[in-house]
Design brief:
Elements lengths: L9 H13 L3 E7 L5 E7 L1 H25 L4
Antiparallel strand pairs: 1-2
Length: about 70
Amino acid sequence: MSEDALRIETGSLYPALHRLEARGWIAAEWKTSDKGKRARYYRLTRTGGRQLAVEQSRWQRLSAAVTRVLRPAD
């Protein structure tokens, strides 16, 4: 999705998923994958959806501020 601009190592991903689950922002369950293997599936919770909206708003404000700094008015 990021065209390799963002890379997340396994050692970072799973601790982050556990933190999100502990906060109630995602839920996880074990299921059987299409390949017949046991896999853990994650989904965004209602609380997580609300938090996502907060984080997106924060990101938009930060991104706009950085753009203003990098491209000052002519």
